[in-house]
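User: ok so my PI wants both of these folded by tonight, can you help

Assistant: No problem, let's get them done. Here's the first:
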Amino acid sequence: MKVHIFIPCFIDQLYPQTAFNMVKVLEKAACDVIYNPAQTCCGQPAFNAGYHHEAKAVCSKFLKDFEAADYIVSPSASCTGFVRNYYQQLFAGTEQQQSITALGKRIYEFTEFLTEVLHIENFGAAFHARVTYHDSCAALRECSIKEGPRKLLAHVKGLELAEMADNETCCGFGGSFAVKFNAISTAMADQKVSNALATGAQYIISTDMSCLMHIDSYIQGKNLPIATMHIADVLASGWE
């Protein structure tokens, strides 16, 4: 199966190992992974900041970059959810609308692709730690992802999953929200990390590195005894 991957801006620039680990897992699942080096952004930052005209230009490029892909997989429910839900709004009434509808059916968040398309839950990973899982807003509300990541974690040898209180509550990132409403954003991160610490977990796991980046910033600032980790990094652990 040929799989085209879309790597979000922040993973490309700050967490490239997560992208490599996603590829590692997909290749173990016998996927032929294709990366188009011409790809850029999905357009979400500009759209969320209110620059819809500029976002539309970026989104048009995304559509062109992936027009030949049967499956597009991304390690981000945020980017996946944006393409599925907001491209329709941007291109409503245009000649591209039909292509946009088809695109929304071909793009998948990484764990969603593993469990819903490949129907594989056990990758032989091993990660000996107590962890808790953060449901990102995009995963829950834009992609309807809830049980899939937990099923994958349940098959990781040595991993103990402890659910935190209010695991569906936002971490406070929200893209530009964290910049415009810093005090509220920080308070939300404090609540999220406090709930995670109460489980005795050593790691907070999620599908979204954007959430984890925000959470980890709070953890580092307070020097707290917990770390963050993308689920792709967990699934690629313990095997060569």
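One down. Here's the second:
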Amino acid sequence: MAVSEWGWKYHHTGIPTTVRMPDEKYLPAFGFYVSGFDSSPFGIEWMRFEEGSPVDGLIQRVPHIAFEVEDLDAELKKHNFKIITAPNSPGGEVRVAMIEHNGAPVELIEFTKKNR
């Protein structure tokens, strides 16, 4: 439904890990390391969290799937999702939010047109 009816586009799958991965990049504002996305043909992204990371515990424990959306605010309003991470800009010309659906985290990503 997210793809066929709402027009969302698959972006990546984020998988929490406790294992140090090759080529990790540290995101200090979120207290975790991320790796793999740039080299994975399937959009697999590994996330290794530091103790005390401010990221919601569900995201730290359960893999998430991410979708690119045209208008993040409109999608959040239209579907009345349970928001676990409010819309924010982790860097560059991108905005993200995390929702919970049936106990699983789902990330919504909005890019500016020049970054698509």
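DSSP finds two helices and eight strands in the chain. The chain has one domain: 9-115. Good luck tonight!
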